[in-house]
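User: Sequence recovery, please. Input:
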C-alpha cells in the first residue's frame, strides 16, 4: 500500500458567507384546498374552493331534497349519515395508507375504541368530555399499534394491523370499566351531546317533525365534522409534514437522505389516522339510529370496507374517501340493500338480499374500478385533465402553469452552513480504520480517508470495490463493523442517516431516488426538511420562503421551467439534476454524488461537470464516485482508489494516473477493454 499523503487544505474558490434562509422571515400562507400541486393557478384554486362549497351545500341540504322528492326521506338521510361517518374513518385511513404508504387492514378497531369509550363514559361524565377521552384513547391505541408495526412494510404491516384489529376492541372493553365506564350494550339511555341531537326540546324544524328534527340536527353536525376533518387533513398534507409523509411513501431511502426520521413520521401519521377513525366511532355511537354497540359491530368486514372506500374514491387524495363512502356506502346501499342497522323503520331494498351478496357486489365493483380506474374516481379526473392538456397542446395552446415566484440570487445559489474558518484547519470528514462486513464478506477493509473542506474528493475503483458501501457508511445508511466516522470534528459513527443530513451531509444515489409521484418543486421542498424546525413542519405549504428557495435551486440546476411537472415525467439526466438540487436544499457542507454521470450523453456529462465545479466554487465539499475517468480527472482535487474494499492508492489525479497498482487494478483493465 502506498504511503498516505495529506490531501490539499487550500481552497482556491471564493466562499460566500452563510445566509441561513427563513430564520427570521414570517410565514405567509396561501389558501389551498386539494389538488395535485401545492401552488396552483388562481382558476384551479378557485375551482377547488367552488367544489368544496358545492359539496358542503349538497351534503348539508341532502335531507331537504330527500324529504321533498322521495317517499323515504328518513331512510335515505340515515343511509347518507352512515356513509358520512364512514367517510371520516376512511379519511383517517387515507392519511396512513394514501399519504404515508401504510395500508392498515384493521382500522375499524379504532372506530371501536372511540365508540366503546364514548358509550362507556357517556353517562359517567359530560358527553363532551367523554369525546375527549375517546379521542385520547383512540390516539393511544394508534400509537401502541404503530410502535410495533410501522417499521414493517407492505404485506407484513397489513397482516399486523389486521390481527391488531381484533385485539384493540377487546382491550378497550376490558380496560374501560377499570376507569369507571359502564358495560357495553343498549345505548338508548346514553346521554347525548348537548345541543347536537335533541336541540330545542320537541320543537320541529321546517319540513320535519320532532323525531325527524333530532336526526336532522345530528346529520348537520356530522357534515360539519366531516368538513372539519377534511380541512385538518388538507392542512397537514399541504405542510412540510405532509410532504415528508409522501416522500416516505415514494422512497423511504431518499426520505432518510433528506433528513426525515422515518419511524417518527410514520408513528405520527398512524396516530393521527387512528384518532380520526376513533372520532368516527364516537359519531357512530351517537347516531340516533344506532341501538347498541357490541364487539361485532366494528368487524373485519368494516375494516376492508373502509379500504374499499379509499381505493374507489382515490388513494392519496383529499376528496377520494368521501367520494368512495358516498358511492359505495350510500348509492350502492340504496340500490342493493346491504346490511345497515336502522332503528324504527326499514330501508328500501330494490334488489333482494341474498347470502353473500354484499361481498360479491362489492368485489365486482372493485374489480371494475381497478380495471377501468386503478387510481380511483379522482384518478379518472386527473387523467381527464391530462388528456385535455394534451389536446390543448396539439391545438397550440399552452397548458396553464402556476406563476413562478420572484427569486433573488440568495435563493438561487448553494450556501454551505459551516465556514472553513469554523473548522479551524480540521478536515471536514475522516474515516478512521473503517471496515464493513456482510456475513463472511468484507466489503470495506480498514479504510482511512481524510477529506479537506472545499475540495472535490473522488472515490474510484472497479465494480464491487466497495465505493457505494463507503458512501453508505459515511451517510449512516450502514453502520461500520469496525472503525469510526468523524464529520466536522465530531464522531457521528452511531448517528442515524437523517441526523447526518441535519448536520450538513447530503447525497444522491447510484440508482435514481426521486419522489416520482410528487412534482419537481415538491421534491426540492422535501430536501429543505433539515432547515425547518419541528413547529414549522406543520405550517401549510404556502410558505413563500420555502417555495422561493426550492424554485431558486431548480433555476440553478436548469429545471425551473419544469418545476410544477411530475418528477416522473423528467428525462433521465434531468432527474439526476433534480437529485442534486434536492440535496443542495439542506445547505450541506458535504455533498456525496454516487455516479451522477451514469447514463448521460457527452453533452449532458459536460453540463454536469460545470455544475459540480460551480458547487465547489460556492464552498461545498464534494465526495464523488464516478466511472467516467475523464470527468474524474478533470474535476478532482484528490482521488482515493479502492480495490476489493481496501485503499490501494490516493493522491492528485496525476499521481493516481501514474500509479502502477491503479493501472493494474482499474485504469489498465479499462484501457484493455
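Assistant: Recovered sequence (673 residues):
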Amino acid at each position: 500500500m502506498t504511503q498516505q499523503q495529506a490531501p490539499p487544505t487550500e481552497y482556491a474558490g471564493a466562499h460566500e458567507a452563510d445566509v441561513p434562509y427563513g430564520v427570521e422571515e414570517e410565514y405567509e400562507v396561501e389558501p389551498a384546498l386539494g389538488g395535485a400541486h401545492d401552488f396552483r393557478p388562481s382558476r384551479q384554486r378557485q375551482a377547488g374552493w367552488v367544489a368544496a362549497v358545492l359539496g358542503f351545500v349538497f351534503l348539508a341540504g341532502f335531507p331537504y331534497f330527500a324529504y321533498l322528492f322521495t317517499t323515504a326521506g328518513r331512510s335515505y338521510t340515515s343511509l347518507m349519515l352512515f356513509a358520512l361517518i364512514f367517510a371520516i374513518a376512511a379519511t383517517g385511513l387515507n392519511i396512513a395508507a394514501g399519504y404515508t404508504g401504510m395500508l392498515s387492514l384493521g382500522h375499524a378497531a379504532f372506530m371501536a375504541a372511540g365508540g366503546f369509550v364514548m358509550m362507556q363514559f357517556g353517562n359517567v361524565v359530560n358527553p363532551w368530555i367523554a369525546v375527549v377521552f375517546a379521542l385520547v384513547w383512540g390516539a393511544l391505541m394508534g400509537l401502541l399499534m404503530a410502535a410495533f408495526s410501522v417499521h414493517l412494510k407492505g404485506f407484513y404491516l397489513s397482516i399486523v394491523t389486521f390481527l391488531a384489529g381484533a385485539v384493540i376492541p377487546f382491550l378497550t372493553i376490558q380496560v374501560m370499566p377499570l376507569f369507571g365506564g359502564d358495560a357495553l350494550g343498549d345505548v338508548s339511555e346514553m346521554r347525548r351531546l348537548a345541543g347536537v341531537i335533541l336541540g330545542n326540546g320537541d320543537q320541529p324544524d321546517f319540513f320535519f317533525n320532532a323525531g325527524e328534527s333530532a336526526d336532522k340536527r345530528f346529520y348537520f353536525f356530522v357534515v360539519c365534522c366531516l368538513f372539519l376533518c377534511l380541512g385538518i387533513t388538507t392542512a397537514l398534507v399541504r405542510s412540510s409534514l405532509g410532504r415528508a409523509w409522501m416522500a416516505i411513501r415514494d422512497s423511504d431511502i431518499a426520505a432518510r437522505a433528506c433528513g426525515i426520521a422515518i419511524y417518527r413520521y410514520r408513528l405520527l401519521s398512524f396516530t393521527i389516522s387512528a384518532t380520526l377513525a376513533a372520532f368516527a366511532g364516537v359519531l357512530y355511537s351517537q347516531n340516533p339510529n344506532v341501538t347498541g354497540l357490541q364487539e361485532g359491530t366494528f368487524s373485519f368486514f368494516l375494516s376492508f370496507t373502509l379500504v374499499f372506500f379509499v381505493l374507489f374514491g382515490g388513494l392519496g387524495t383529499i376528496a377520494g374517501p368521501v367520494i368512495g363512502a358516498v358511492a359505495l356506502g350510500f348509492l350502492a346501499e340504496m340500490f342493493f340493500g346491504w346490511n345497515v342497522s336502522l332503528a324504527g323503520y326499514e330501508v328500501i331494498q330494490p334488489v333482494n338480499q341474498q347470502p353473500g351478496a354484499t361481498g360479491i357486489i362489492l368485489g365486482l365493483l372493485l374489480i371494475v374500478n381497478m380495471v377501468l380506474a386503478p387510481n380511483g374516481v379522482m384518478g379518472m379526473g386527473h387523467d381527464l385533465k391530462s388528456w385535455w392538456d394534451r389536446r390543448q397542446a396539439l391545438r397550440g395552446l399552452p397548458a396553464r402553469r402556476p406563476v413562478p415566484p420572484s427569486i433573488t440570487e440568495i435563493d438561487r445559489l448553494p450556501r454551505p452552513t459551516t465556514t472553513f474558518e469554523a473548522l479551524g484547519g480540521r478536515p471536514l470528514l475522516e474515516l478512521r480504520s473503517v471496515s464493513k462486513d456482510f456475513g463472511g464478506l468484507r466489503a470495506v477493509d480498514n479504510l482511512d480517508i481524510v477529506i479537506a473542506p472545499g475540495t472535490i474528493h473522488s472515490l474510484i475503483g472497479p465494480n464491487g470495490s466497495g465505493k457505494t458501501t463507503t458512501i453508505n457508511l459515511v451517510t449512516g445508511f450502514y453502520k461500520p463493523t469496525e472503525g469510526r466516522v468523524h464529520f466536522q470534528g465530531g464522531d457521528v459513527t452511531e448517528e442515524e442517516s437523517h441526523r447526518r443530513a441535519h448536520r450538513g451531509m447530503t447525497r444522491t444515489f447510484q440508482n435514481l431516488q426521486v419522489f416520482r409521484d410528487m412534482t419537481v418543486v415538491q421534491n426540492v421542498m422535501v430536501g429543505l426538511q433539515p432547515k425547518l424546525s419541528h413547529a414549522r413542519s406543520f405550517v401549510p405549504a404556502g410558505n413563500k420562503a420555502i417555495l422561493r428557495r426550492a424554485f431558486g435551486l431548480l433555476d440553478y440546476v436548469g429545471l425551473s421551467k419544469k418545476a410544477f411537472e411530475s418528477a416522473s415525467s423528467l428525462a433521465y439526466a434531468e432527474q439526476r439534476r433534480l437529485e442534486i438540487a434536492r440535496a443542495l436544499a439542506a445547505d450541506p457542507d458535504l455533498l456525496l454524488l454516487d455516479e451522477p454521470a451514469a447514463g448521460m450523453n457527452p453533452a449532458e456529462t459536460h453540463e454536469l461537470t460545470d455544475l459540480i465545479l460551480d458547487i465547489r466554487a460556492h464552498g461545498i465539499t464534494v465526495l464523488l464516485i464516478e466511472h467516467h475517468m475523464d470527468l474524474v480527472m478533470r474535476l478532482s482535487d484528490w482521488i482515493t482508489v479502492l480495490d476489493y474494499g481496501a485503499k490501494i492508492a490516493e493522491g492528485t489525479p496525476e499521481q493516481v494516473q501514474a500509479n502502477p497498482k491503479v493501472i493494474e487494478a482499474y485504469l489498465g483493465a479499462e484501457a484493455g477493454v
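Confidence is low (pLDDT under 50) at residues 1-42, 198-208, 338-352, 669-673.
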